[in-house]
């Protein structure tokens, strides 16, 4: 991993740890303090969203010009790439998905990382998709390490629907596969 990517990941992961801390404080807070904490959590996720967008652009700029469009557009490569190029592409997809912390637990993150890693081994997938899945797996694992396997998000608001990622994580844990 490049120093710039590692530095960015550390910054993003520090936001994740701060978010997890705010969730813990929210659980212990009274009804008067909870709205303030909820606002801080929302602001922090917005900061993360902007940071993740900027980092994604920075990482994609490092991808070789002949494969940049397939990486950006998430389409198959029309050429073979070497190991160094594959690593740069993997880094494009390996940003920790902090925005998922509002509904995924540490256990969910680990389950999804395992799921993505397993899917990446399917020989029917094209090379770019395999690399993407490995990047997603790495991002999920980094995030799970930052917040801890015992991290649990606040309960969904009444009437809110479960996200697809949460459904997949639950399904993965209940059946061992999806």
What keyword list fits this structure?
178 residues, mainly alpha, 7 helices, 69% helix, globular
Task: Please characterize this protein's 3D structure.
By secondary structure, the protein is mainly alpha-helical. 69% of the residues lie in helices and 0% in strands. It contains 7 helices and no strands. The chain has helices spanning 3-28, 34-61, 65-73, 83-93, 106-120, 127-147, 164-175. Helix 2 packs antiparallel against helix 4 (83-93), helix 5 runs antiparallel to helix 6 (127-147) and helix 5 packs across helix 7. The longest helix is centred in the first third of the chain and has 28 residues, at 34-61. The protein is globular. The chain starts with a helix and ends with a helix.
Provide the fold topology:
Elements: H1 3-28, H2 34-61, H3 65-73, H4 83-93, H5 106-120, H6 127-147, H7 164-175
Helix pairs in contact: 1-2, 1-6, 2-4, 4-6, 5-6, 5-7
Q: What's the gist of this structure?
A:
With 178 residues, the protein is mainly α. Helices cover 69% and strands 0% of the residues. The chain is globular, with a radius of gyration of 17 Å.
């Amino acid at each position: 991993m490049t120093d710039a990517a590692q530095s960015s990941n550390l910054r993003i992961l520090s936001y994740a740890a701060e978010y997890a801390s705010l969730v813990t404080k929210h659980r212990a807070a009274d009804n008067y303090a909870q709205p303030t904490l909820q606002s801080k959590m929302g602001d922090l996720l917005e900061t993360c969203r902007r940071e993740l967008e900027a980092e994604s652009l920075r990482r994609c700029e490092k991808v070789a010009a002949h494969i940049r469009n397939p990486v950006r557009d998430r389409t198959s490569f029309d050429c073979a790439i070497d190991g160094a190029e594959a690593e740069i592409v993997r880094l494009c997809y390996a940003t920790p998905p902090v925005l998922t912390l509002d509904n995924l637990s540490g256990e969910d993150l680990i389950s999804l990382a395992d799921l993505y890693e397993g899917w990446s081994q399917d020989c029917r997938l094209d090379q770019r998709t395999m690399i993407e899945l490995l990047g997603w797996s790495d991002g999920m694992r980094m995030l799970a390490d930052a917040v801890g396997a015992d991290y649990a998000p606040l309960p969904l608001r009444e009437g809110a629907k479960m996200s697809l990622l949460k459904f997949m994580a639950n399904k993965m844990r209940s059946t061992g596969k999806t």
